[in-house]
Amino acid sequence: RTPMSTGRGLPDQMRNLEENMRRVQDQMRLLGLPQTAAGLATSLAGSQQQLQAVEFQLRAAQEALRAYAYQQPQPPSPPRPPGAAPSPFPAPPGVFPSAARMSDEERLYRSGKLHLEEREFERAVESFQRIAEKKTSRADAALYWKAYSQNKAGRRTEALATLEELTRAYPNSRWLDDARALELEVKQSSGRPVSPESEADEDLKVLAVSGMIHTDPERGIPVLEGILQKSGSPRLKERALFVLAQSHSPKARERMLQMARGGVNPDLQVKAVEYLGYQSTPELRQALSEIYGSTSDTQIKRAVLRGYTAGRDKERLLQVARSEQAQDLKREAIRGLGHVGADAELWQMYQAESSPEVKLEILRSMPGRKENSDKLLDLVKTEKDPKLRRELIDQLGYTRSQKNAEALVALYNAESDANVRRTVVHALQRQEHARGLVELARSESDPKLKRALVETLSKMKSKEATDYLLELLNK
After folding, report:
1. Is 223 buried (19+), middle (13-18) or exposed (0-12) by CB count in 10 A?
2. Range of 25-34, 39-48, 82-91, 138-147 with top mean pLDDT
3. pLDDT tens digits, residue range 76-98?
4. Cβ atoms of residues 121 and 150 within 8 Å
5. DSSP state of 102
6. DSSP conformation class of 71
7. Distance in angstroms (rounded) separating the CA atoms of residues 229 and 241
């Protein structure tokens, strides 16, 4: 959820700022840049092109924060001039799931990949091992990356055993081609000590591929295709795919479409799908629709939905939100609709929906604009589900107005559920409506609720709140 799509206040803005900065840091890791000021200072001369890429992403994050500050929907991106490269930070804020929405498996998987980029190979092994033990949909990928990490750590015998486990346990895995290439590499290196030179060689290749973004991506297309077609490091392939996505040549786009439709490991396919979504032409959106309908892979489907959101493809998001049976994908589509400002469509879905969980997602995805307040007020008066009532009240707190504040005070007085009353208190705090909170504190007889009201008032910078607190002290 983002402030832009929900109208939420400063706490959510800060969380999204942190999320954007984490993305920038992730890109710095992918580019091989040090994470400290001292490290940056020592590598400026040799990493100028990579620093330019990070600077580009920081500018994109700043633009997103300006949109957050004004609590307005993000306008569509202006059309790029012919031949211009897409932004290396192309996804609009809120498209990627926040950490709170990620599954434990997804968090562990991303953590393992980041440990790899930081050369924390033992920690990467631990993350991927935990996924493999769960035997979920990403267990085969986790075994591959576990073996990859073990090899990088110099544990070649264990890496071969892990690859054997992958082949035995998942004979139809799409990671087997990469596994065979890694097995050959491990066997060729067996008996030799870990070579820092070979580690640096891969890093140099990653830096060289990254540099093509700023030099001549068109000229580098044959090189990039060669990297993608040959057996080799998935890390290097991911960087090559990223650079290939910057090109608007028909040949590059055709290669991206091939990868998006399959024939590569699932991680690369997801990346290809996402990058195609950022380019957002009618032909590519149609291709994404075909990919969505032809796969059962949830990760691929999520990538398509993120592509729809990046391209502001409201119609296809709405189609998925209405017809998708898988609840997690349905919720992903609903979040996309919230981001593209499909207010009327979301209200219609809420009225027709019977699932409390889906209704809750719709409310959390609704833009928190003043024109929605009347609808929220009408709903909170008739909604019987306590969880939905709390969410409706919570939403009202984010749209500051005298009308909302007075309505919240009235709701508190008419409500018997203590949890709902606490939600009203928090909503009034966000409204900064000290007068209403003082009024409720004076009349509240429940000691716990009265204490919650007084505690809330003690955190507010308001003359009315201060006067009431002094009144209590003088009793």
Report:
1. middle
2. 138-147
3. 333 333 343 333 333 333 333 44
4. yes
5. S
6. T
7. 11
